[in-house]
């Protein structure tokens, strides 16, 4: 969750310096390279290396030198130019933003200032939708979030006019922007300057050189944190292991002011708790001389003798099978997929499905209310930035051999651009699964029927290591029109020290109830603390264009009439009619406002009608006046899932129907998930209120993209999706956005120690009467003569 | 659901004849062969080909000749001998059973008789568990279900003593055994001898030669079906398409007596409904001259330059990575996995996980109560046999190139053995996923950490084409100890004819409510009828041996005390204490008996304790007296899942703990599923009452294996898992069986026409404090030098 980023500062500055000035020199872009570290101290006389001091001062430190490898010329990104309205800001553009801002009055003061976010200000949706390859790009603009002194500012920089628009300056709502590497670095080193801290460390018998401290976002718990940008700091012993997370110095917490750089408070509740041992904590392959003693697995690989079937045009347009979309790295969301369109084999049209999809926010509440743990309620996208927390993916292991990689270009906290190499991979996956099949026993005169089509998918992957946890985010495309968003959790647990070495030591009260541990004992002196993960996706579906409606189809038992049938009952699919009943009393939480799931849909209420038919529509697509369909949600929709009160959730274009009259649509198909059980009035749940429902539907609003609010850090929960959704806005035949939250309860067990096997879940966006028929009816089976001829490269190597 | 098996009869007899007599001749075992048809009419003078007349008489018909290909000698199965106590009956053994029974008094009568099931009578569990390779096999026995005249008989045939034990003869409980191919064949041809039938077909303008009729199990709906073994028959037009399922002759239903071979009743409610057209119904690749016009996919393959990592020893013992298990085909369950054990890298022990796992029953209720549809409430395992409904898997498409295949040896309805070739495949899958990973930004003096391990799994697959539907059943093993059972649904919908060609024609009543269609219009005159699929798995988990308990850990919101914490709440994991509350009032169905989820667990009640410690246990395993653990279910357990009242479900060995004192365990991890909404008193739901809960826990009872009862066909629901579970038997520290039901609601959409893209779901059995730590900590990453060197075989081919 929480970055430990002692040296991120240097990594970023130096990378940026390098990119600007040393693109033709020996810089590592090799996939297997480790971090690219270039020592700016040696080039500090260079004007641009000095530029890292432009917005603030940061003293340099010696860092380990890596030997950079030769970098292919076309991957240096210095000469990148935007090709599409949604392309991210280039190195040149980021430098220009920095240059424009450097002369702006806002940054004239001597107060510390940082650029917390510099990203493309995306053009209006209509402009983007109308743009075709070859057209001039709409004006390029940057959206900038800056801190100057104690204030946040939201700016737009026009790169054609050089004008700066102070959109919200200073920002007056609660919350702060993403913490910067500079801030994290200062927090990580601050304890060592504190005499009380050093004293308590020494009193525990630890060498200060073995201590690693990491900042942890503080959440927000009421007035005492108001008007101070703070972080909690906790520390670990790295003595003898790279896996210091397993060796917490329990109960020792510091509160640090990120602006004044002062330690405000030290609490120490864990003096009696030993630091867990280092045995079995290391997970490096190089650490196991005997390696795995079980039957070894033979090498296995996905091979494509003719190469991948996809192309990435103009750096960002991915075209594969029947799909095409725009793909770009993003510092906050990790990656953004836009303009998703699919080819219709019947009409030969390329039809719109989704304008934009990305991870909007995460919420990871730990389930321990005690002093050293209560605040651990992370919102990793808005607090740290999923894209900023990526590392280069490891070829052959993070992604298979046939993967293609994409770099991210981000701005450092001083505005200098840097390259995050290989942060996204794109590959075709074939697991041996079946796309469709049927076997029919022969009837006389007909041949045996056995028709089977293998399932090949396209995966777009990024991995964010937000401190201890690793989030593997996959967007998977199937040729049958299904899109799957999948989240894999791996990495290292956040554990709690305990004096217990065995469960049988746990104290019991007079009634025999065991002491609450808030988790399970995973190893001697180690408790894995229970926590949840919520990942909220922003899904601006535009099914055949933006004018869509959300159709909730309830599945209910219908009893038959007496004498009607030998059956007593059947399941009926009914569009909802009125406010649904709350089937589960537990679902009615103590929220301060009544929950609306859907507003009255009774036919007596006048409805938005008579929209102009969409201008789209092909041979088989039938444009019809927007029709009155039962079950359409009219206002901001909020939906909780239930196994015994199931529904289907369709986004339909009621202005366009299939040949037989069904509105064209895509449905959201939840799979395994979890729901937050926290009190809705609990401060963390107020901030994470966007997880109160699994599905939300809102009208499109360009400013509503981050479910926890644009300014998430220490936010009060006054600018979340839950608040926007209360605005009771029309969503029928509108440009609507669907928000889906994927949840996990994590009750740690010993198998999670010292590093966790990946746990995954997913949800699907699936065509439902979007195509006239199975769109892969004509797909080809595999033939032996197509497949590669392979040999072992070098058995004896 | 319902087999259309005109020629199964011949296939089986002839195959059997062939195997017995022509093993060295030109018989097709080539993977790409179609059905193996050998014309017994030409060999009918042979005494063994005549043997197909042993138990009944069936007139022969001309059939298409296939040219058999050379078959490898070692695959003829004629000389197979059993190597393991659980090995299925061999060809020789099946012949011996037939021989023993032929001289038994029971079959002396002239009444028609069939052998509906001949399978291994598995030895007692203790014998099997104690057996080691090299030991003598326990006595080999066959369990036989026979029909003689109108009676069913359950017999055991001892192959060493030749004695026949009449276990239950005649059987007096409700229900019948699996329908035979002979019965299905007679049903499929019966309508054509009926003048009324022929008249109504002709009156609809259809040629009788274009009509295909298929038997459909009738379910059970009260007294009128009592004491008659019947089937419904419905018919389709196969004119111009192999996909006759899309061309129903709607509303025409025949009731056929499988014993007397009489048509009892013809109902015809669909005279005004046209037969849907044939356009776009064909799905054969050979039918698309222009093939797929979208960007073609380049060939892709899973390659293993050194071959697969698993071995199959003695025909049935699969050993892969840390796993080993016994795998066998089964005519009813499809396949059975037994003696599943996993290697513990810490102790070097091979530890027991699951004694036996298989698909126990399916339940597929259609949601249309009208005359021609109400009875469609299939239970495919007990009515048709999943194994019997398999076809040879198609290499490269049903399973990837690196797959290994296993044949099934089953008995035909006259007891003759036949081979179902390539009915199971086993392969290693690598989709490009990640088993575990972590990236750590470097701190000064330490190298960058990036440790990633690819995820390779072992998949065991079978596919049953039960009439129109195809069930893809995967058992997937992960090296981290997780087992996944996955069900994929593909094949062809059962559709309903309608006079509507467009949704806008659907009639409305005065209130504006649309006529109930019980589904969606998928094409002109075609309605895809709503239905559910339930697949109930039998899981005899033996975690470190048979003495296990079931631990339900409830996750509940816990409010903090005033002043305790800045947090108001957290989620607490609590073993259940007393009868859980019914969180969802909808879950309380109108069953005639009160639901018990778990019995009182209050500490005042004396509990079963003081069992002897298990005799197992290694270096790190600690045997402890069976302890009093909170949350253990004591009596037959019945569990419903709920998103807002979540739990974890552990099977633990409370007599064995890990090093730090946790009971060793595996947990059942539900993923996406669905629950039946039918009235519990509805006849189909009474028969399918095993789907009333998602999880059931019962004490091991050798006779309780088939959730819908041993005699499923036309059963009344008086011998289901739901009935057994009401017996209130102890399940604490017992040999227990867990039953898990995976459900799907299927609301058809146009993309399902004319053949359905696969829909999948799954659940996991996952180690939870079973291992001391992550068991794949020492797994190796991929290295480039291990991977194959591949080339395109022949681009121009």
From TrEMBL, chains A, B:
The active site is at 380 (proton acceptor), 469 (schiff-base intermediate with substrate). Contains 1 topaquinone per subunit. The modification 2',4',5'-topaquinone is found at residue 469. One of its GO terms (molecular function) is copper ion binding. Its EC number is 1.4.3.-. Homodimer. This is Amine oxidase. It comes from Arabidopsis suecica (Swedish thale-cress). The lineage of its organism: Eukaryota, Viridiplantae, Streptophyta, Embryophyta, Tracheophyta.
């Amino acid at each position: 969750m929480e970055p430990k980023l002692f040296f991120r500062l240097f990594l970023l500055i130096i990378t940026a310096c390098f990119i600007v000035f040393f693109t033709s020199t020996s810089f590592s872009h090799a996939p297997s390279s480790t971090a690219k570290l270039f020592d700016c101290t040696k080039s500090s006389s260079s004007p641009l290396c000095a530029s890292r001091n432009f917005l603030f001062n940061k003293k340099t430190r010696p860092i380990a030198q890596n030997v950079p490898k030769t970098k292919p010329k076309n991957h240096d990104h210095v000469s990148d130019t935007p090709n599409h309205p949604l392309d991210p800001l280039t190195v040149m553009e980021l430098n220009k933003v920095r240059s424009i801002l450097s002369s702006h009055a806002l940054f004239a003061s001597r107060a510390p200032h940082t650029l917390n976010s510099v990203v493309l200000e995306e053009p209006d949706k209509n402009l983007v939708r109308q743009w075709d390859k070859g057209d001039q790009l709409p004006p390029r603009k940057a959206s900038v979030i800056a801190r100057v002194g104690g204030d946040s500012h939201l700016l737009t920089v026009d790169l054609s006019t050089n004008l700066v628009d102070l959109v919200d300056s200073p920002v007056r709502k609660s919350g702060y922007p993403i913490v910067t590497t500079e801030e994290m670095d200062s927090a990580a080193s601050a304890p060592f300057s504190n005499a009380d801290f050093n004293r308590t460390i020494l009193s525990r018998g630890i060498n200060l050189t073995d201590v690693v401290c990491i900042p942890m976002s503080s959440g927000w718990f009421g007035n005492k944190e108001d008007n101070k940008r703070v972080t909690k700091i906790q520390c670990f012993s790295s003595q003898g292991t790279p896996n210091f997370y397993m060796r917490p110095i329990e109960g020792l917490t510091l509160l640090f002011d990120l602006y004044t750089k002062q330690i405000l408070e030290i609490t120490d509740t864990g003096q009696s708790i030993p630091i867990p041992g280092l045995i079995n904590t290391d997970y490096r392959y190089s650490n196991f001389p005997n390696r795995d003693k079980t039957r070894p697995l033979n090498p296995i690989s996905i091979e494509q003798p003719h190469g991948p079937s996809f192309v990435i045009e103009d750096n960002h347009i991915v075209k594969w099978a029947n799909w095409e979309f725009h793909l770009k790295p993003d510092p906050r969301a990790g990656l953004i997929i836009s303009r998703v369109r699919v080819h219709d084999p019947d009409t030969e049209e390329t039809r719109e499905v989704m304008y934009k999809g990305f991870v909007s926010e995460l919420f990871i509440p730990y389930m321990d209310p005690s002093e050293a743990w209560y605040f651990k309620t992370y919102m990793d996208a808005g607090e740290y930035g999923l894209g900023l927390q990526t590392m280069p993916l490891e070829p052959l292991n993070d992604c298979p051999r046939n993967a293609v990689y994409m770099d991210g270009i981000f701005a450092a906290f001083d505005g200098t651009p840097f390259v995050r190499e290989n942060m996204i991979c794109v590959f075709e996956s074939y697991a041996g699964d079946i796309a469709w099949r049927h076997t029919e026993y022969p009837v006389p005169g007909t041949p045996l029927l056995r028709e089977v089509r293998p399932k090949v998918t396209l995966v777009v992957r990024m991995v964010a290591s937000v401190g201890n946890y690793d989030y593997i985010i996959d967007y998977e495309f199937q040729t049958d029109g299904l899109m799957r968003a999948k989240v894999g959790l791996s990495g290292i647990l956040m554990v709690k020290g305990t004096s217990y070495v065995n469960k049988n030591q746990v104290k019991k009260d007079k009634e025999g109830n065991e002491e609450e541990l808030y988790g399970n004992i995973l190893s001697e002196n180690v408790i894995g603390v229970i926590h949840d993960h919520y990942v909220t996706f922003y899904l601006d579906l535009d099914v055949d264009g933006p004018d869509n409606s959300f159709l909730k189809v309830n599945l209910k038992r219908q009893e038959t009439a007496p004498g009607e049938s030998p059956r007593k009952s059947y399941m009926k699919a009914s569009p909802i009619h009125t406010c649904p009943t709350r089937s589960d009393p537990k679902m009615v939480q103590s929220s301060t406002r009544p929950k609306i799931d859907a507003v009255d849909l009774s036919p007596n209420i006048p409805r938005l009608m008579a929209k102009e038919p969409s201008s789209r529509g092909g041979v088989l697509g039938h444009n019809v006046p927007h029709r009155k369909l039962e079950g359409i949600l009219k206002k901001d929709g909020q939906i909780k899932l239930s196994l015994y009160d199931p529904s289907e959730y369709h986004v339909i274009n009621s202005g366009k129907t299939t040949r037989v009259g069904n509105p064209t649509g895509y449905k959201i198909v939840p799979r395994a998930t979890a729901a937050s059980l926290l009190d809705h009035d609990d401060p963390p749940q107020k901030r994470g209120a966007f997880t109160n429902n699994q599905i939300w539907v809102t009208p499109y609003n360009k400013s509503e993209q981050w479910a926890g609010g644009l300014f998430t850090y220490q936010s009060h929960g006054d600018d979340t999706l839950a608040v926007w959704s209360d605005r009771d806005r029309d969503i029928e035949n509108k440009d609507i956005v669907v928000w889906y939250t994927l949840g996990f309860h994590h009750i740690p067990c010993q198998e999670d120690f010292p590093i966790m096997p990946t746990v995954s879940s997913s949800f699907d966006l699936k065509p439902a009467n979007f195509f006239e028929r199975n769109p892969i009816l004509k797909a080809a089976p595999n033939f032996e003569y197509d497949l590669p001829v392979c040999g072992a490269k070098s058995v004896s190597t």
